[in-house]
Automatic annotation (TrEMBL), chains A, B:
Its main location: cytoplasm. Gene3D superfamilies: Guanylate Kinase phosphate binding domain (3.30.63.10), P-loop containing nucleotide triphosphate hydrolases (3.40.50.300). The lineage of its organism: Bacteria, Pseudomonadati, Pseudomonadota, Alphaproteobacteria, Rhodobacterales. This is Guanylate kinase. GO terms for molecular function: ATP binding; GMP kinase activity. Residues 9-189 form the Guanylate kinase-like domain. It comes from the Bacteria.
Length: 215, 215
């Protein structure tokens, strides 16, 4: 930001197959810049042990979820394994009006819908690929709470997810967490420096011209 | 870069009024990544003391400069204060074929021509603004070798140059050299991570799919 006017907030879309490191990247990004607002998804699936309403998800029954969609309250939504997931619109518009970025941890369907939404021109999308499928499977198996059946389902979904990699602006191969995060920070830093994301520059250059006149 | 195929080389265009820090940024960028190729400009102006042919400029007389332009050997060229300046095309194409970036230290006319050239889709342009005109003038006056008349001419040209700031992809206000350089590095790092600049990703994802098949 250069001047009084806040910069335009970004819609930062992060997608990857389960286990490729998306959630770790999201967490690191929020720790790096606490002004970034994380878009908490709404869902109709039941809370898992320890999941907090409004923190991990906004938990809804099917009727109230449908009502939100019908009233335009969702920026995007999709059905996955029989449950609905979506990104509430109001917090995103609030963040943008404050010049703050919103981070979306969504799958390719969510990414497509955000890009195609009315706010899509401020979307920046990043796809994270695993270094190999063997590594992806190892990371999924490391999550002790999931059954073999759940893991098999995730692997099938991973393949589907990866098939959409070419729809994203940026692609990172997550070989090493710190390197990948450094790349992600560079992307966010650079996107904030785009001319059209710095509306305050108009006033700044006007002041430079006033200074020229006064010489 | 992810794989065997080299990434697409960038045409990194750096413009700013004289004294805003463009040459310092260019030097720091080359030191940070020696694979970046600096585009040495061709000119018809006479060498200043200490200037080396092929290092600071390619010095030409008007006839040989015109012959180069006529044969398509210049990516861009323009007349400034009665002298011609231009960017030879061959070294840029050579660098791109090796997946290396080329750095252009050019004015707005050069920037426009590179963006509009056949290689323009790989151009990334950065404009550097001074924090104030007073500061810009101080920096120009600090260059002992220039007369008051030369400085006055530069200030007029600076105003003209600044009037083109909005044609650039990225804008940096150079308040503090290290901060500005960190931003510039982020821009170069991010632009290299764009999906369409990493042709090797196609093979990489094909290998991931082969691995899925083999499970």
């Amino acid at each position: 930001m250069t001047h009084g006017q806040p910069r335009r907030g970004l819609l930062l879309i992060l997608s990857s197959p389960s286990g490729a490191g998306k959630s770790t990247m999201a967490r690191m990004l929020m720790a790096w810049d606490p002004t970034i607002r994380f878009s908490v998804s709404a869902t109709t699936r039941k809370p898992r042990p320890g999941e907090v309403h409004g923190q991990h998800y906004w938990f809804h029954d099917h009727d109230s979820f449908r009502a939100l969609v019908a009233s335009g309250g969702m920026l995007e939504h999709a059905e996955v394994f029989g449950n609905f997931y979506g990104s509430p619109r109001a917090p995103v518009e609030q963040a943008m009006s404050e010049g703050r970025d919103t981070l979306f941890d969504v799958d390719w369907q969510g990414g497509q819908q955000i890009r195609n939404s009315a706010l899509g021109k401020d979307a920046v999308s990043v796809f994270i690929l695993p270094p190999s499928i063997a590594e992806l499977e190892n990371r999924l198996k490391g999550r002790a709470q999931d059954s073999a059946e759940v893991i098999a389902g995730r692997m099938a979904k991973s393949r589907d997810e990866i098939s959409h990699w070419a729809e994203y602006d940026y692609v990172l191969v997550n070989r090493e967490v710190d390197e990948t995060f450094a790349d992600l920070k560079a992307i966010v830093t650079a996107e904030r420096l785009r001319r059209d994301r710095q509306p305050g520059l108009n006033d700044f250059v006007r002041d430079l011209n006033t200074e020229f006149e006064a010489r």
